[in-house]
Specification:
- With 266 residues, the chain is of the alpha/beta class.
- The protein folds into two domains: 4-55 and 128-258, Rossmann fold (3-Layer(aba) Sandwich), CATH 3.40.50; 62-125, no CATH class.
- The chain is built from ten helices and six strands, in the order βαβαααααβαβαββαα.
- The chain has helices at 17-36, 65-74, 78-86, 97-110, 114-130, 132-145, 158-169, 188-194, 245-249, 252-258, and strands at residues 4-7, 46-48, 152-156, 177-181, 204-210, 233-236.
- Strands 2-1-3-4-5-6 form a six-stranded parallel sheet, sandwiched between helices.
- α1 (17-36) links the parallel β1 (4-7) and β2.
Length: 266
């Protein structure tokens, strides 16, 4: 068992565990090098892969919009919406007009295609939280990897929700650190379905987010999970690809969060 276990995010169904490890491990090493200021070999890392369970993802459902539209609206300002109303439609023709406006507003605020990215994550998060059979399969994949010996659980995007659920339902894991990257745990839809936003049984929870990441709500998590604390919300700058796992893993802030747990001597 590895001391470090990652839980990946959405839209990885065409990849696999080994392919993702080949991206995550060197990115994580870069983050540690930035934190330590010296060369660091790639740390031991394993990955809980569940992407293939989403290969049979159902077609878009109209009733999704009842939950998704408020989440899109939460991400933008009235000024963003007013400007989006004036823009010509650009490729969202299968969606209701009100949704098209919201997507354009999200794009204006966070960058091209941010709206579609937010919708895609919302759909998969919603499916994970509402499909008991799928959720049980995903949770079992995590349990297979994050068993004895795991000290740090790293969840990116949807994977942060999965990691949170694993810890909440398994209080005796002995895992010391939950590290969430680009997490949608702050979304109203997610918080409502998780209930009371229970604390998780770890010594430390650190949340890393980019202020331009449309999935991380561009905001800290500690207002909903006081367990994190104000200093436990860490901001980073990921450049143009604000939500990418590799960007998050390679940031100095991520390396610093892991430095006490990664088994790398100073």
């Amino acid at each position: 068992m590895s001391a470090l276990v990652g839980v990946h995010g959405m839209a990885k169904h065409q990849l696999g565990r080994h392919q993702l490890l080949s991206l995550w491990q060197p990115a994580l090493a870069d983050g540690l090098e930035r934190a330590y200021g010296r060369p660091i070999p790639p740390p031991g890392l394993d990955l809980a892969f569940y992407g293939d369970l989403f290969l049979d993802e159902p077609d878009e459902a109209a009733d999704d919009w009842d939950e998704i539209m408020p989440e899109l609206a939460d991400a933008v300002t009235p000024e963003d919406l007013a400007a989006a109303e004036e823009e010509a439609p650009k490729g969202y023709t299968r969606m209701p007009r009100a949704v098209q406006v919201l997507l354009r507003a999200v794009d204006r605020r966070f960058g091209a295609a941010a709206g579609i990215l937010r919708v895609s994550v919302l759909r998969q998060v919603r499916r994970y939280l509402t499909d008991p059979r799928l959720k049980a399969q995903v949770d079992e994949r995590v349990a297979q990897v994050a068993g004895d010996g795991c000290r740090v659980l790293i969840g990116h995007s949807l994977g942060s929700v999965v990691a949170y659920e694993y810890l909440r339902r398994n209080p005796d894991t002995g895992i010391e650190l939950l590290l969430t990257l680009g997490s949608p745990l702050g979304l109203r839809m997610v918080r409502r379905r998780l209930g009371a936003c229970d604390p998780v049984p770890v010594q430390t929870w650190i949340n890393v987010y980019d202020l331009r990441d449309p999935i991380a709500c561009a905001s800290p998590l500690h207002p909903w999970w006081p367990q994190i604390g104000e200093t436990g919300d860490v901001t980073v700058v990921n450049g143009a690809d604000t939500h990418a796992a590799e960007r998050y893993l390679s940031r100095r802030g991520t390396g610093e969060a892991l430095s006490a747990f990664a088994g790398v001597a100073r």
